[in-house]
Each structure stands twice: as C-alpha cells, then as structure tokens.
Amino acid sequence: MTASAKPARFYFSLRSPYSWLAHRDLTQREPKLAAALEWRPFFEPDRISSRLLAELGGTFPYTPMSRAKHLYILQDIGRISAQRGLRVTWPVDRDPVWEVPHLAYLVARRKGRGGEFVAEAYRARWEEGHDICDRAVVGEIATRIGLEARELAAACDDPVMRREGAGCLMEVCEDGVFGVPFFVQGRRRFWGLDRLPDFVAHMSGSGVPLRSVPGLPASAVGLGSRAVDDGHAGGCG
Length: 237
Prior knowledge:
Helices cover about 50% and strands about 5% of the residues. A hairpin with a 2-residue loop joins strand 3 and strand 4 (about 190). The protein is of the alpha+beta class. It has 10 helices and 4 strands. Strands 2-1-3-4 form a 4-stranded mixed beta sheet, sandwiched between helices. The protein has a single domain (about 10-205), classed as Glutaredoxin, CATH 3.40.30. It is globular and about 40 Å long. The relative contact order is 0.22. The model is unreliable at about 210-235 (pLDDT under 50).
C-alpha cells in the first residue's frame, strides 16, 4: 500500500501526558475526525519486543529524557492542563513494562473497544494517578468497558499479541515517528499537541473520506471547528 493510500493515523502513547491532552482535544473537539483515524500505539519496548522488532528489521526511535526536559515537562503540563480546567495527578512508574497497557489496548481494539480503553487508561493514569503497567489496574479498566479483565491484563503474555505489538512498532519505524502525539496522512506529518489544529485543517481540506472505527462514536461535529493552539511543541518521546 502506498503512503497516500493508507488511512490517516494518530500515534499515541499512554505514557505521554501530551498524548493524553491531544486525545482529549481530538475526541472532545473533533470527534468525527477522531473516529475516522487509525489509532496506533507507540511504546518503549522491553527485551522481548525489542528482539521481535529487530527480527522485522526495525529499531525503536527512543532517546532517554534528560533531567532538565523532565522538569520542564512537569511545569509545562501543569500550565497546559490548567488552561483546559484539568488537574493532573502525576503517576509514579516503578519498573514499568509498557507492553502491559498497550498490548491490552490491541486486545480491546480487536473487540471494538479500543477507543474506550484508551480513554479509561488515560483517565486512570493522568487524572487518578494509577500505575497502568499494573496488571490489576488494566483488569479494572477492562471491567469498566465491559471486557474480560484477565484477558486484557495478561495480553503481554500472549505470543500472538507480542507479535502484533512488534508489528505496531515496525509501523512507527516505517512512518518515521519519533515522538508523540504524531499524526500522519499520506506524506504529511504533524508532531506535537500544538500541531493538532494544523492536522485538523489539513484533513478538512484534504478531501480524504472519513471512516468510522469501532469503539469511538462519531458525532455530527464537523471538521471545520478548530482546536485551541497553545503555542507549544507539545510532543515527547
């Protein structure tokens, strides 16, 4: 499939606060577009996923965050969240395995509940401060959206889901994604929270037909409305 023939994509990470804010802006202000995009996970691979990705010929594009950048993000997210009337509850990640929530998302997506899983996972992490790499937390999220807790909590133990996850990371490599949130349509790429309005405007004038995806209801809100431009790069690895 050529780049222009692929559906428009939204690369997100449940780890990233900028992805969380982009998800909120996109689903609340541009729900028709949100329902039309292909949602693809971006997550730091563990040893198993790294090996599977290497077998596919890919290398994950991740650079460790400096202390200065980390401190800046703490301040920046607090500022941007306050502008939206949101209160962040910062989670503590202790030896996180990001396959736990992201492969659970892939299971939820197979069952038509991907969008619901992402919304609940973001709420659990950024509004309630839970560790979403804790299998018990993932199980609770699954129960909230009407799915079987054990299946989603154990997704990262399933070799089939492991291979599917590695395939998602290979898509990250093929699309040239280096951080999140990241939006792709054809050969056009938009990185960061503050590029969301530009992506919306691009899609509005692109003539690309929108298709609904399961797990995220579309509304009558059109593409013409514009999200707030916060003047910030709004992307992280």
